[in-house]
Amino acid sequence: DVRRITAPEIRARKGGDPIVSLTSYHAHTAQLLDRHVDVILVGDSLGMVMHGLETTVPVTVEMMIVHGRAVVRGTRRALITVDLPFGSYEASPVEAFHTATRVLKETGAGAVKLEGGRRMAETVRFLVDRGIPVMGHVGLTPQAINTLGSFKARGRDDAEASEILDDARAVAQAGAFSIVLEAIAEPLARRITEEVAPPTIGIGGSPACDGQILVLEDMLGLGARVPKFVKKYAELGPAIEDAVARYAEEVRARTFPGPEHTYAPRAPKAS
Ligand code: KIV
Ligand code: NA
């Protein structure tokens, strides 16, 4: 019998076996991941990857719920964590509570993730105290693209590094069960990992982080342009294009479908 990994179990992995995490937005891929990863994130990156948006800013709670449900249905073991999208939680702890409870009730996921450090600490505490496991996310926070101005790496000078360290400390003290560190200088990711109590999950972080996460489509080689921190473990883009080109050729040549792909009439019934 398979039981789901829980947020407290992930929290207890600090300094232990690395936490393996990937994103998924889709039942079939989630099923393939389920035996190999500990945490599946239904990231708001789905806006860019699945829906062709330029940024994650336009992503809605409804989009997160549709994809979150699909991933929960496709899995039995991994902890499913769903991103709260931009504009659905920042105004107040109460707003965040309403959005997070709706997401958990309507998807069956086990946790939510939200972006932001010191400014979100009160909200993280409010949710955790009311039964909602929260994954933090500091460093590059893509929902803030319009104030940040670019997706470049953060914390590469001392002043910015100390801001991000304070952000991570605040989210840790507020009770997050883990913290994503995105696109920050490697020594900073290492230092945060040494200092904070919950496990850190790096993406453009450090091998010293307590876990790692990548966007599935990026590591499979489906992403058009990918950041420096992505390692491609497959090149599915060219493989898919090759399959589609061969199919098109065979349809045009009438060599597909072959006899093995078509149905013979039924023999008449004996009377
Ligand atoms: O939306 C997402 O995929 C994420 C990960 C990159 C951490 O937030
Ligand atoms: Na995200």
Going by CATH, the homologous superfamily would be Phosphoenolpyruvate-binding domains
How are the strands ordered across the major sheet?
Answer: 1-2-3-4-5-6-7-8
Terminal residue distance:
51 Å
Estimate the helix proportion, in percent: 25-40%
Radius of gyration: 21 Å
Strand coverage percent: 5-15%
CATH architecture: Alpha-Beta Barrel
Global geometry: globular
Biggest sheet character? 8 strands, parallel, barrel
How do the helices and strands line up, and which of them pair or pack?
Layout lengths: L6 H5 L7 E5 L3 H7 L5 E4 L3 H4 L11 H13 L5 E5 L9 H15 L3 E3 L7 H9 L4 E6 L5 H4 L9 H16 L4 E5 L3 H10 L4 E4 L7 E4 L1 H4 L16 H17 L19
Parallel strand pairs: 1-2, 1-8, 2-3, 3-4, 4-5, 5-6, 6-7, 7-8
Bound molecules: 3-methyl-2-oxobutanoic acid and sodium ion (NA).
3-methyl-2-oxobutanoic acid (KIV) binds next to β6.
Catalytic activity: (6R)-5,10-methylene-5,6,7,8-tetrahydrofolate + 3-methyl-2-oxobutanoate + H2O = 2-dehydropantoate + (6S)-5,6,7,8-tetrahydrofolate
Keywords: Cytoplasm, Magnesium, Metal-binding, Methyltransferase, Pantothenate biosynthesis, Transferase
Subcellular location: Cytoplasm
